[in-house]
Design brief:
Layout: E1 8-12, H1 16-28, E2 32-36, H2 39-49, E3 53-57, E4 59-60, E5 63-64, H3 65-75, E6 80-84, H4 89-97, E7 102-105, H5 110-124, E8 135-138, E9 141-144, E10 149-152, E11 155-157, H6 161-171, E12 177-179, H7 180-187, H8 196-210, E13 220-223, E14 227-230
Parallel strand pairs: 1-2, 1-3, 3-6, 6-7
Antiparallel strand pairs: 4-5, 8-9, 9-10, 10-11, 12-14, 13-14
Bound molecules: calcium ion (CA).
Calcium ion binds near residues 14, 57 and 59.
Length: about 240
């Protein structure tokens, strides 16, 4: 490990072999590992263990990972990687709809999973470059880049790491159309550049949280077939 305290990973998976394999491998590269073998224990473990990241299997004996992910999202914005059994497009999209940040398809290599864990934790801890504006305001929405927080008026809007990262890349490019593939590369990584459905799912999550009327978005505006554009900040409206 480089420095600082060890990051804790919670594995929620009912196959003991996979749990053992992941535990050994994640511990060998310096992570602390907790695990739960079903959805009910998993949900409790999220509150008790306060993990930095969750690896969540889709098929659990007492429920599916999607519902559990939705439950976790009601009280936590911890990054979630879904383990999907098959590379079926619909399942991946359902994972993103339920608030997962990424997915790995079974059978997976532990090296691949560790790479995903590292990438997500790195993005979650990314710092806003110094010298860039500390915050941005559009209507009554305020984004504090230095604190990684978003407010409407005085109320904080809680965003997951992926939602924040997506909003961040749109907001620092306010007024410019960001291409689908550009946003996918920035937020999920270059290997996701063609997965427009994931981007759509996350834009929906974001709009529900930040737009006054998500069906008439004013902050994140679509350029159909091309990308999305973040509205110009208050005081920077173009001359008409
Ligand atoms: Ca399973």
């Amino acid at each position: 490990m480089v420095s600082g305290e060890r990051k804790k990973i919670l594995i929620i998976e009912d196959e003991p072999k996979i749990v053992r394999l992941l535990k050994i491998n994640l511990e060998s590269v310096g992570y602390e590992v907790a695990y739960a073998l079903n959805a009910s224990d998993g949900c409790k473990a999220v509150e008790k263990e306060m993990p930095d990241l969750i690896v969540l299997d889709v098929m659990l004996p007492d429920g599916d990972g999607y519902s559990l992910c939705r439950r976790i999202r009601e009280f936590s914005d911890v990054p979630v990687i879904m383990l999907t059994a098959r590379a079926r497009e619909r399942e991946k999209i359902e994972g993103f709809e339920s608030g997962a940040d990424d997915y790995v398809t079974k059978p997976f290599s532990t090296a691949e999973l560790i790479a995903r864990v590292r990438a997500i934790l790195k993005r979650a801890g990314a710092q806003h470059p110094s010298g860039a504006p500390a915050e941005l305001e559009v209507d009554d929405l305020r984004i504090s880049f230095s604190k990684r927080k978003v407010y409407r008026g005085a109320t904080e809007i809680r965003l997951t790491h992926t939602e924040y990262n997506l909003l961040y890349h749109l907001a620092v490019n306010a007024g410019k159309v960001m291409l689908h593939e550009e946003l996918l590369s920035l937020v999920w990584g270059p290997e996701y550049r063609d997965e427009v459905e994931y981007l759509r799912a996350y834009i929906r999550h974001l709009r529900k949280k930040i737009e006054v009327d998500p069906s008439e978005p004013r902050i994140i505006v679509s350029s159909p077939g091309i990308g999305y554009c973040f509205a110009l900040p208050t005081g920077h409206e173009p001359e008409t």
